[in-house]
């Protein structure tokens, strides 16, 4: 049971780090090329949604595998 909680926490932590990196790099890209902001934002949102989906799946698997 404790390991399931640790696994769920690690999945949430990793997702937070990944989404934070995506946001930071997107802001750098927009600062360098403001005319590409809409394309960068679209790609950032898609990538963040995919990471969030994988994190949710990992949390569910960690809690089921207790």
UniProtKB/TrEMBL annotation:
List the residues marked with site Reversibly protonated during proton transport: 52
Q: What domain of life does the UniProt record list for this protein's source?
A: Bacteria
Where it mainly occurs, coarsely classed, is membrane
Taken from the record, one Pfam family name reads ATP-synt_C
Report the subcellular localization: Cell membrane; Membrane
Task: Name the CDD domains for this protein.
Answer: ATP-synt_Fo_c (cd18121)
| Transmembrane region(s) | 44-65
Which keywords does UniProt give here?
Answer: ATP synthesis, Cell membrane, CF(0), Hydrogen ion transport, Ion transport, Lipid-binding, Membrane, Transmembrane, Transmembrane helix, Transport
Q: What one GO molecular function would you report for this record?
A: proton-transporting ATP synthase activity, rotational mechanism
Q: Name one GO cellular component term.
A: plasma membrane
Q: SUPFAM superfamilies in the record, alphabetically?
A: F1F0 ATP synthase subunit C
What is the recorded membrane topology of this protein?
Multi-pass membrane protein
Q: Which residues form the V-ATPase proteolipid subunit C-like domain?
A: 4-64
- PANTHER family associated with the record: ATP SYNTHASE LIPID-BINDING PROTEIN, MITOCHONDRIAL, ATPASE PROTEIN 9
What family is reported?
A: Belongs to the ATPase C chain family.
Q: Which NCBIfam families match?
A: ATP_synt_c (TIGR01260)
Q: What does this protein do?
A: Key component of the F(0) channel; it plays a direct role in translocation across the membrane. A homomeric c-ring of between 10-14 subunits forms the central stalk rotor element with the F(1) delta and epsilon subunits.
What protein am I looking at? Answer: ATP synthase subunit c
Species in which this protein is naturally found: Neptunitalea chrysea
């Amino acid at each position: 049971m404790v390991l399931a909680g640790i696994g769920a926490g690690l999945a949430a932590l990793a997702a937070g780090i990944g989404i934070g990196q995506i946001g930071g790099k997107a802001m750098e890209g927009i600062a360098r090329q403001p005319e590409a902001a809409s394309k960068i934002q679209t790609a950032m949102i898609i990538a963040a949604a995919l990471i969030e989906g994988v994190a949710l799946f990992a949390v569910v698997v960690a809690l089921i595998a207790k």
